Amino acid sequence: MYINLYPNKEKSKTKKNLLLLGFFFFAGGAYAFFRETVLQDTIRVNWVIGAVVIFIAGILSIFMATDRIWLKDAYFSMQPDYIKFRLSFFSKEHMLRWSQIQQVRISKHFVLFELNNQEQVELKLGAIQSDDVARQVTSSLRLAALDHQIAVNGVKMHEHTINS
User: Fold this and answer.
1) Domain of residue 107, CATH code
2) Quick one: DSSP state of residue 64?
3) Cα separation of 107 and 1, whole Å?
4) 35-87: per-residue pLDDT in tens?
5) pTM, rounded to two decimals
6) Is 85 helix (H, G, I), strand (E, B) or coil?
7) Which of the listed residues 45, 65, 85 is the one where a domain comes to its end?
8) CA–CA separation, 30 and 15 (whole Å)
9) Do the Cβ atoms of 106 and 141 come closer than 8 Å?
10) Selection from 109, 103, 102, 116 nearest residue 87 by Cα
11) pLDDT tens digits for 131-158?
């Protein structure tokens, strides 16, 4: 199962907003740099540095919006052996093997994976833009965890229950 968390409509809307923000930063940074280096009598180094940072942020935003710098997909993927997800364009990708997972805690706001090595990995459902998709993800995780004999919210399906 693979779910793209930013379908084309949301991704293009995000890129449009990023492009507008980029133009704003680009123009503001360029003007501030021009103002500080040409129009002012004394150069204030901190203001020049700030203007350059804003200008660079504008360029980076424009590059991301126009695909010169690729944004990584935000997705949720569940396979028989593992779960992989990245919740936003800039977040870290998580890959969890079912054999690593000791318990799954599912709430309205997040899914918490408790691993065998006492680590915890959180999947924040609020990062998923669609409530329907978030419900589908939690339902699929609940069923798959029970199928893999992993406790969900403290309840574990016993093998003799499955086979009967």
Assistant:
1) 2.30.29.30
2) H
3) 21
4) 999 998 888 999 999 999 999 999 999 999 998 887 778 888 999 999 999 98
5) 0.67
6) strand
7) 65
8) 22
9) yes
10) 109
11) 888 888 999 999 999 889 898 988 877 6
